Fold this sequence. Notes:
The chain is α+β, with helices and mostly antiparallel strands.
Amino acid sequence: MAPQFPRYIWQNGRLVPGENATVHVLSHALHYGSSVFEGVRVYRTPEGSRSFRLREHITRLFNSAKLYRIDIPYSQEEIEAACNQAVLANSLDKGAYIRPVVFRGYAGLGLTAPSDSPVEVAIAAIEWGAYLGAEGLKNGVDVCVSSWQRVAPNTIPSGAKAAGGYLSSQLISMEAKRHGYAEGIGLTTDGMVGEGAGENIFIVKEGKIYTPPAACSILAGITRDTVISLARDAGFEVHEQTMPREMLYFADEVFFSGTAAEVTPVRSVDRIQIGSGTRGPVTEIIQDRFFGLFNGRTRDQWGWLQPLDSAADAPLASVAV
Length: 321
């Protein structure tokens, strides 16, 4: 079944009907991958709908654009307000996934776009459940180590969330799914554990938590940072260090993190059972702390939750019909 268009998409300062949010086929981004994007979740909490770490996501969006010298024609505050407006315009205040994307428009077919090339911005808000399945959140998922490696340092920067970099992720994920796995893991060019196709990875061994550092060609995710903060607050030791592949198989627990994946246990790697073959006790604590941010069990001492009604402080985008 084909996905439905959102009722409205925020595009270049206006809310337009979803089916009308189009771009030209000669857009630079379509040919050369010159776009940056984000993924942000909105949760329904006891205090009302809240976006989760929206400010940090939009800061990363601007940093990614800076690296590729894409000048976003709006302020960070305007983009944050537009994200909220996209959610409210589609009546998704009970929960949503927000996708802001910034890309170069038509500027000729040269590889290097001129400095004055048009830059377009679009923001969609949709309903999106558990990325790796609701069942996977409870019982874990089966994954494999991909034959495709992560990009080498100083090639495509992994610290920027740019569309072109996700061609690597597509190869990793497509290979995994062809072989019956839920997801794939990419190793670094020197054979160390990197990350999932679209997720960061954590390993639990003897009650301690380990995760690859940013230097391992990973996107040091915002949910990854959330997990590290929650784990340390719960009294766990968290180590950011390089890890050989075999640590995956020797682990007591393995879990993914990401905006889409949230916190998802891994029950097997390459058909080798991890621990008891289901969600482990440390993963369960981290999950409880993470989802507790949204049901009120975990106090948001970090100020990560932002109300959607902050959009009321910004001028509403006009609606194009």
